[in-house]
Amino acid sequence: MAQLFGSAFATADTADVTESELMQVATTLARQYDAGYTAKDPAGVAALYAADGVLVSPAGPIVRGREALTAYYTKRFASGAKGHSIKVLEVHVQGNGGYGLAEFSVTAPRANGELREEHGRIVSVYQHDPEGWHLRLVIPSIPESEK
């Protein structure tokens, strides 16, 4: 999933990437993330991250690296999480990538196991590496009123 997208931009010099191009990158990664969530594909979602990518989970744990991310998403999908949707709001080029702000919704289990729809925000750091574009850091947040 990420390989097809990554190779399309792998030859781009990130010093020349515009915010418009980074928006395309961010939007494509968001769509791939949502598709992986729908397919309940933990390895596919983890592959969207850089090899040493980090997720700061809204539930608390800091998850580092694709192996740990695969395990995290395996548990997440087994819990019943589904229906993930990301809307990228803005991006900004910086260094060998950039960062972006997005809104998301997901159906996720509460502590008692009951599923409910949650809405929140995401800060993402995008990195261009030899394999293409990846998520370097993802920090979702859910307002207290949603928890």
Question: What report would you give on this structure?
Answer:
Strand 5 and strand 6 form a beta hairpin. With 147 residues, the chain is of the alpha+beta class. The termini are far apart. Helix content is 32%, strand content 42%. Mean pLDDT is 89; it is low at 1-12. The protein has a six-stranded mixed β-sheet with strand order 2-1-6-5-4-3. The chain has one domain (2-146): Nuclear Transport Factor 2, Chain: A (Roll), CATH 3.10.450. It has helices at 2-9, 19-39, 42-46, 66-78, and strands spanning 49-56, 62-64, 82-94, 97-109, 115-129, 132-141. The longest helix has 21 residues, at 19-39.
Write down how many β-strands occur, each being a DSSP E stretch of 2 or more residues: 6
Order of helices and strands: HHHEEHEEEE
Strand content: 35-45%
Q: What are the segments in which pLDDT stays under 50 over at least 5 consecutive residues?
A: 1-12
Approximate shape: globular
CATH architecture: Roll
Radius of gyration, CA atoms, in whole angstroms = 15 Å
Helical percentage: 25-40%
